[in-house]
C-alpha cells in the first residue's frame, strides 16, 4: 500500500484467515498526528478502507487529551479529534485509564487504538504493557480474534452516548458546592474530582 506510506502514516494490508479458513482483509496503520485535526492522508485511508469493506485498525500517537479515552484533562486537540471521529466509522478501543505516555514528570493517555465498527468486537484483552519500551510511550497490546463475528463488545462510541443521561449523572456527582481553592494542592484536588466525575459519568 505505497499510496499510504508517508513520514507520519504507514499502512499494511495483511490477509488473514479465521478458524474456518475464511479470508479477512485487514488494514493496519501506525499513525502520528501532528496537528489539531487528522491529516488528509489518514482521512483518505479511512475512506479507502470503508469503501472497500476492509477491517481497519489504527495505532495512533494522537498527542490529544480527552477524558473520554482516559486522559486527566481535555485540550483543544482532544476536542478536534473527538469531533472528527464522530464523522467516521472509527471507535476508540482503549480500555481503562492506564497511562500510555510516562516520563519522570507526568503520566498521560495520549496514544489511541482506533478501529472500524466491523472490527471493534474482535479486539480483546486491550492493555498497556508494563514492560520497558525504551521510549516515553508504552507498548499497547491487544488480541485480534477473527472468529468473533458477533456478540457483545466493550468500546467507547461517543455517537451513541445518551447525553441527557450523562448530564444528569454528572450533575449528581457534582451536586456539592465547588471547593474554595487557595493553594495549588487544593486546585489539583478539585480538578481530580471534576475529572473523575466526568469519566465515571461517561462510562
TrEMBL record:
Signal peptide: none
Pfam families tied to this protein: Exo_endo_phos_2
GO molecular function, one term: catalytic activity
Stretches assigned to the Endonuclease/exonuclease/phosphatase domain: 56-140
InterPro entries assigned: Endo/exonu/phosph_ase_sf, Endo/exonuclease/phosphatase
Protein name (Swiss-Prot/TrEMBL): Endonuclease/exonuclease/phosphatase domain-containing protein
Organism per entry: Photinus pyralis (Common eastern firefly)
